[in-house]
Design brief:
Blueprint lengths: L1 H23 L2 E2 L9 E7 L5 E10 L6 E3 L7 E2 L2 E2 L7 H7 E3 L4 H5 L1 E4 L2 E5 L1 E3 L3 E3 L1 E8 L2 E2 L1 E2 L4 E8 L7 E8 L34 E2 L2 E2 L5 E2 L7 E2 L2 E4 L2 E7 L4 E6 L7 E4 L34 E2 L4 E2 L4 E9 L8 E10 L2 E4 L15 H11 L4 H4 L2 H11 L1 E9 L6 H4 L25 H7 L4 E11 L47 E3 L15 E5 L2 E4 L1
Parallel strand pairs: 1-7, 2-31, 25-26
Antiparallel strand pairs: 2-3, 3-12, 4-7, 5-6, 8-9, 9-31, 10-11, 12-13, 12-30, 14-30, 15-27, 15-31, 16-22, 16-30, 17-18, 19-20, 21-24, 22-23, 27-28, 28-29, 32-34, 33-34
The chain binds 2-acetamido-2-deoxy-beta-D-glucopyranose.
The site of 2-acetamido-2-deoxy-beta-D-glucopyranose has 6 residues, from loops.
Length: 534
């Protein structure tokens, strides 16, 4: 009897808790069907052959219609919550639902094959500004990327991104399910683009951890669509690419704990808090912007990397032991344009050397520019590697900057500095540029296109079309990165005009391609697993 009785009590308790959970949960609306635009991308193997996978993209929950769970009335309009519907984080999570998205017509987001286009301003019944999308593995799971000892490659068209805009492709340590399993009150999950976090510990999110962010919500005074609440959402962030046609930066931002964590008020730190450095993440990062590092002729329209036409961006995550379980020791960048592999420009800043992100580069750069070293304080390159080791989610976005007009990317920043202040000059944009109101009206037709995403072992995802060796040399490359061909070198002569191209792989454990380099390059060992023509 006793056992039966207690079983009943237990069962009732379960039912009651299920009922409460459903009432308090962050809900999903059903007025607009959620159909994720498909996007193909490729995984490559060390031989250079790539296999394409069809995934899809999902727009972040913050861009979505938030309405009463059982009705059409907005819970949130412009930059304010409707407090006649609900007044606190728990009640708004149950009273309000996020709905499906019309990707092309409302948000200006379209895909075609391996290509994703994000338009800046889209005017339908309302005006939409920019977007933030995540790559999905299936309907309700973000694609997780393991990038240690791998390279990540994509093509980008920034030719229609002027001063003040930022087409960003990056990775964050979001939960693969958007947080549904850790926070059962989140009923929307990855399918509706929930669970965002980054190293600014953003407080402009409408929902975090299955709760609304209405407590303490203050509408922005210069953004009609945004505000900040008491809660923020922190996690590690690897900015592969933050760029427009004028400047670009690659920037790791570690956190004390890589995974998503909710923070409170100004203790969140980052852009949205009164003390930028109060939180557990590194809001500044260790950035490599070629212009800021002294080469003003490298990146831009008509420059070495000519931003008036598309190009390929390669980013390598090199570890100390050449394995995926090693410690991240270097983040290396190449570009490929018109078949030519172009290595990142080298620093010309006094006291800072190299063309890649290493611990030495970061500490020297912080010193040379007089910047606070929040990067090493929150784990440095090793901390970034810890986040990469846990797997990260791919984000692709287009945004303008209501906090600093993007001057930190493309102009002189801080604005009190001059172009001769060490580290202040970041690009050729005027210090008066980038005001969101101005770019939204004058550059409404701006857009970015990301395409041809590939991931694989170092050296597997890109190639050059011709050797840049001696005159008359038309040496074929040592490898192919197309999805249909696996080309290995057929070079059997010792001629110095054949061999692998500049920057191509030329050795390493398991390597069966060319082991000599086209003149005048030398096969240089990076680690046991990777040698490169330099
Ligand atoms: C900028 O980079 C290009 C390409 O690497 C190089 O040819 C040029 O010398 C560099 N300029 C400076 C000032 O370092």
């Amino acid at each position: 009897m006793a056992a039966t009785l207690s079983y009943r009590v237990y069962k009732n308790a379960l039912l009651l808790s299920a009922f409460l959970t459903s009432v308090q949960a962050q809900q999903v609306g059903t007025y607009q069907t959620e159909t994720h635009p498909s996007l193909t991308w490729s995984k490559c193997t060390s031989g250079g052959s790539c296999t394409s996978t069809t995934g899809s993209v999902v727009i972040d929950a913050n861009w979505r219609w938030v309405h009463e769970t059982n009705g059409y009335t907005n819970c949130y309009t412009g930059n304010e919550w409707d407090t006649s519907i609900c007044t606190d984080d728990v009640s708004c999570a149950s009273a309000c639902a996020v709905d499906g998205a019309s990707y092309a017509s409302t948000y200006g987001v379209t895909t075609s094959g391996d290509e994703l286009r994000l338009n800046f301003v889209t005017t339908a019944s309302q005006k939409n500004i920019g977007s933030r999308l995540y790559l999905l593995e299936d309907e309700s799971t973000y694609q997780i990327f393991d990038l240690l000892n791998q390279e990540f490659t994509f093509d980008v068209d920034v030719s229609n991104l002027p001063c003040g805009l930022n087409g960003a492709l990056y990775f964050v340590s979001m939960d693969a399910d958007g947080g549904m399993s850790r926070f059962p009150t989140n009923r929307a999950g990855a399918k509706y683009g929930t669970g965002y976090c980054d190293s600014q510990c953003p407080r402009d999110l409408k929902f975090i951890d299955g709760q609304a962010n209405v407590d303490g919500w203050e509408p922005s005074d210069n953004d009609v669509n945004a505000g900040t609440g008491n809660h923020g959402s922190c996690c590690a962030e690897m900015d592969i690419w933050e760029a427009n046609s004028i400047s670009n930066a690659v920037t790791p931002h570690p956190c004390d704990t890589p995974t998503q964590t909710m923070c409170e008020g100004d203790a969140c730190g980052g852009t949205y808090s009164s003390d930028r450095y109060a939180g557990t993440c590194d809001p500044d990062g260790c950035d490599f912007n070629p212009y800021r590092m002294g080469n003003t002729s490298f990146y831009g329209p008509g420059k070495t990397v000519d931003t008036s036409s598309p190009f390929t961006v390669v980013t390598q995550f090199i570890t100390d032991d050449g394995t995926s379980s090693g410690t991240l020791s270097e983040i290396k960048r190449f570009y490929v344009q018109d078949g030519e592999v172009i290595s990142q420009s080298a620093s010309t800043v006094s006291g800072v050397s190299g063309n890649s992100i290493t611990t030495d580069f970061c500490s020297a750069q912080k010193k040379a520019f007089g910047d606070k070293d929040s990067f090493s304080a929150h784990g440095g390159l090793e901390g970034m590697g810890a986040a990469l080791a846990e797997g990260m989610v791919l984000v692709m976005s287009l945004w303008d900057d209501h906090a600093a007009n993007m001057l930190w990317l493309d102009s002189i920043y801080p604005t009190t500095a001059t172009s001769s202040t060490p580290g202040a000059a970041r690009g050729t944009c005027d210090i008066s540029s980038g005001d969101p109101a101005t770019v939204e009206s004058e550059n409404a037709n701006a857009y970015v296109i990301y395409s041809n995403i590939k991931v694989g072992p170092l050296g597997s995802t890109y190639k050059s079309d011709s050797s840049s060796g001696g005159s008359g040399s038309t040496t074929t490359t040592s490898k192919s990165s197309t999805t249909t061909t696996t080309t290995k070198t057929t070079t059997t002569t010792g001629s110095s005009t054949t061999g692998a191209a500049h920057y191509a792989q030329c050795g390493g454990s398991g390597w069966t391609g060319a082991t000599t380099c086209a003149s005048p390059y030398t096969c240089t060992k990076q680690n046991d697993y990777y040698s490169q023509c330099l």
